[in-house]
Amino acid sequence: MMKLGKILLAGLSMVVGIGLASGNVQPSAASAAGTEYYVATSGSDTNAGTSDAPWKTLQHAADTVPAGSTVYVRGGVYNEKLKITRSGSASAGPIVFANYDNEAPIIDGKGLAVSGSEGLVELNDVNYVTVQGFEIRNFTTASKNAVPVGIYVHGAGGFINLSNNKVHDIKNTATPSGSDRLGRDAHGIAVYGTKAPDSIHDLTISGNELSNLVLGSSEALVLNGNVDTFAVTDNIVHDNDNIGIDLIGFEGTAPNAAYDQARNGLVKGNRVYNNTVKNNPSYAKDDNSAGGIYVDGGKDSVIEQNYSYNNDIGVEIASEHAGKSTSNITVRSNVIYNNRLTGIAIGGYDTKRGSTVNCKIVNNTVYKNDTLNDYNGQLLVQYDTQNNVIKNNIFVANSTDVLFYNEYTKNSGNVVDYNLYSAPGGSSDATWTWKNKEYTGFSSYQKGTGNDAHSLFADDPKFVNEAGGDFHLQPSSPAIDAGHTDTAIIGTGDIDGESRVKGSAVNIGADE
């Protein structure tokens, strides 16, 4: 909510895809039947590129190797940019850039100029490429006309795998200007689908760590535009000055509006924390709008089994563009706690924004968010929400006793039921604001709204150790077997991947 404009990288051709499983590629397990090549800081680009006579630069390898090749990069610091424009193929196999054995190659941007929107590692219009096992760091600028990116994939293409990389200290330190405070943008990993109908597709981003990024009005990990079919899994995104993970649509990134939405994706098993605009000069001092996980105009995707905590907002599914909707997003089996503004937010942040439509928020554990005590509650229902389902969630209020806050009356067709509520003040003092009317007391809220006919209020949900961040349920928890077994939306696994349906019963909350 109240995001500034994401950086538009229109005009650049872009690409992305999916590829190999995560994990270090070992010399004994080279993909397909391709040749192995080697790069080392002690090498020479006039060498043969063998283990005994390695090349010196990553770029020479990228400009040389054919489809099916694996480029093993030895440990050390490589102070260079890497531009990948050659593709692998389905028949020959991908082109793989990987760390050798357990060594740690570092691609360091210190002292390198940032030209326009540019990646320290950049993949442009390629297919079947894997980049894994690198530390990528120190690509910085103080220019408003430049956007540094750790790994930047753009154009159209597929079967790209970015895995087990550590991306940090990618920064834009320009002073923002104007009433909209723009001019300061950077990304850790950015995927921009800028062509149509050809998309970036079959994309895997897995096992990466993104931290200490100075992003301005941008995002740590973003998929924007014509990106279709992706998996963002098991990443750690933390201590950045804006949004953690973002799926974006309607920004004009793709040349045809019909294709301009990130879609058909999975965001699973990520741990996202300490992402806030609190000290970001691109935002007002009282702004708290950095979502740990944010869907702004994306559609047809699942967000599950993630931990999101100590961000401004835990999870937000909204649209910043008037007349446009974020749609068919399922948010399930996530643990969302101790976020500053609210736990889950849906709808446009004001009446000039778009809507949240046909989304499902099910089996989440949402615990003591709104740590600023601004009375935004655990679920913040904003402008124009239609036909959304909110079921099987545990909502635990903080000291304000506020569970839902919905000041807008443009709210229709939303189904809210089979949830478990808890608040420090108990059932009689807990509050819900629904369609701009406040209700104090659980029974008053049920009667006044028609919501939550099958829901429960409990003085204690009985978590194992919420103070220690363990939100599994004790055997005596009232949430056990109290949920609605709607197999069409609840998924097959809980927060740990264990079976969601046991017999005919389902728990409320993230833990089964």
TrEMBL record:
Its main location: secreted. The keyword Secreted applies. Keywords: Secreted, Signal. Residues 150-366 form the Right handed beta helix domain. It comes from the Bacteria. Residues 1-21 form the signal peptide. It is found in: Secreted. InterPro entries: Beta_helix, Choice_anch_Q_dom, PbH1, Pectin_lyas_fold, Pectin_lyase_fold/virulence, Polysaccharide_Lyase_9. It holds the Pfam family Beta_helix. Gene3D superfamilies: Single-stranded right-handed beta-helix, Pectin lyase-like. SMART domains: PbH1. The keyword Secreted applies. PANTHER family: PECTATE LYASE (EUROFUNG) (PTHR40088), SECRETED SUGAR HYDROLASE (PTHR40088:SF2). This is Right-handed parallel beta-helix repeat-containing protein. It comes from Paenibacillus enshidis.
